[in-house]
Queue: 2 jobs
Job 1
Amino acid sequence: WKIKGKPNKVKIFSRIHGYHGLTFGAMSATGMAVYHKMFGPLAPNFLQTAAPYPYRWAGAEECGVGAVAALEAAILKEGADTVAAVIAEPVMGAGGVIVPPTTYFPALRKLCDKHEVLLITDEVITGFGRTGKWFAGGHWGIEPDMTTFAKGVTSAYLPLGGVLVSKRVHEAVQNAPADQKFMHAATYSGHPVCCAVGLRNLEIIEKEGLVERAAVMGKKLLAGLESMRNIPVVGDVRGLGMMCGVELVESKDTKKPAIGLGAKVGKEMLARGLLTRVRGGSPDPAIGDTICVAPPLMTPEKQIDRIVDIVQESVIAASR
């Protein structure tokens, strides 16, 4: 924006429950207070608005439309001429596998265009097949201005991350005058060994059809977990591709978060041979402990069945 003659556009909006990383700027964009407590004060000019979280959406409007409307109100309050970007995970991973309604991202793209705000999609977790698309934004046909990625690009065999930028962002940076160039570099940028591993990994993903497989097996995984909805402490089951979440509550009627139950479920799962992440809940902003299930894209069908069985057995055992 400085190159474009708009130096006041410095604020970045993210969402409550969003997670963007552990470096200072990424942490400041993260919308989970537990990650802030020991590191404040955080960087200025980062603000959060409501997540498109269907299970706990209390607004009068449909969740996707309402979340974008809340963001627009916040942008107008700050002044659109001060807002640089919105950063959003297509599916909120560490926040509890929160899948947005289909209305959300198309409306978000239109909003960003309307107010000259960049849209950044954080595909660190969702990229390279996790949700059954190469990039999760493809589920809604959106074209972000920037996309961050890591994890799946090498399947974690070696560390590698990067940023994809749109043509207009690239041209603005590339054609900047000498006194406005980005004068920073990292010692290990473009590390040839990591890049070689990434290329080979992507070749294998494509050759073995793992993106398409994730879409098929993801439906099976979600359908299996959906069968747990009759368990009294299961409030919500959600997912997209090989990325699912089971949210635990004290009561289906009140949706009161079952704080601490997730840790008990985790121990039960481990005793049965399943190690997976459990997102700790909070009373405010409300979210229940959530069992996050994201098996490898090549997981055999029989193991998908066993994963579902273990999660169900463990929830029942822990809630007795």
Job 2
Amino acid sequence: MHTQVTVLAAYAAVLIPAALAAHMVVPNVTPSVASNSMQMLSYIKRKSCMRRDDFLRHWFEVHAPIVAPLALKFGITGYSQIQAFGQILPQNAGEDDPASNELTSFDGIASFIYPNASVLLDMLAHPYYTAVVANDEAKFIDKKAHNGGQVAVYVAEVVPVVGYGKNDTAVAVDIWTGDEATREKYQALFDEYDKRHFG
């Protein structure tokens, strides 16, 4: 495997305060992105009653293992949590103009890479998403904010420039580095939903 550290990750490690750096996710591999893959970047806003470090902790330690089995089932080839924050104009996916000219805050960016639009739509329609994932989102995302807390969403085709060579085998695997018991718990819960609804 190729170990890659991006310039942005290096800057993030220097610029983010130590309190946040302890929870920062910087994977040591960058998967190849197939030509014609799609990517969704979703700028998410935390609930106002939640401190940012609690939001980041919940997003990584609780939400990530909930999402992982669903993402793997539907061939999502990349799910990353970009633990950045700031302000952005509200933006709906596929629209040229912002939804508002008033800046809004965001507390993280979710990145999904997937082979085509139907994969993401199918994933979001799965009963596990509606019963488990969406339920957890309501615990830490400000659902009253623009677009249900996804204050800016960008969806586009990915044009790969750097990645693994032709001889490397890229298989989507769960690379979440949290607690193994938590991973197993949500994998089993997902398997139960998937079996019940899809045999």
